[in-house]
Amino acid sequence: MNLFTIASLTVHLWLAELLDFALDEQALLALLSPDEVKRAMRFKLPLHSQRFIITRGLLRKTLSLYTGVAPDKIVFNYGEHGKPHLQANPYALQFNVSHSADIAIFALTTYQEIGVDIEKIEPHFREDVAKRFFSSQEYAQLMDLTGDARNKGFYQIWSRKEALIKAAGKGLFTLSSDFSINLSETKESVSLMYAEQQVNYYIENIYVPDGYQAAIATTEPINNISNYSAVFLP
What we know:
Blueprint: E1 10-17, H1 25-29, H2 34-42, H3 46-67, E2 76-78, E3 84-86, E4 93-100, E5 103-110, E6 114-120, H4 127-133, H5 136-143, H6 147-168, E7 187-194, E8 197-205, E9 212-218, E10 224-229
Parallel strand pairs: 1-10
Antiparallel strand pairs: 1-5, 2-3, 4-5, 6-9, 7-8, 8-9
Helix pairs in contact: 2-3, 5-6
């Protein structure tokens, strides 16, 4: 088996349209660990359970391409806020996963932390969320926009902030007031302080299907992004 490799300062993105894999649900369920199966069964709605099963099964198949480990043999460790890492990781592979509605995305790189977030764009501006979780600078940027532009700007800020927080391994919006997103840029760098040490994050928008907004965040600037479709997973 020829393993996929990732060049330095490169990100591989795998996109999955979950409805394409509805008929594979039972086969993907068989790849999950017992704790993942328990998580899947805790969802109240069958659709949410199905989305989780397909996303985690495809994640395992994707990671198998890079590690050479069979999908059902991959073991995850979890950080304080639930961020998964590979237990055995000889290739210094780092990854993150996000899904929203019927789209999932897996982001992989090496030797640095990475976060990814995808959000389905809803038709109405969520001003209550913007007021509660966004900085005053971000809120002001949104108020300078109108209509669809304001709503899209909301999801640009949300996806970038969430990608950074996931790269940092923190809980949802834990650091949301510590930094501001600049809507005039498609990529930017943000500096945060941890225990009196400055950590830089590099955030950029990524291409996803219409109706969604997505971003990645890394601790080193990215030179190249390669895009793949999960329909080609073996």
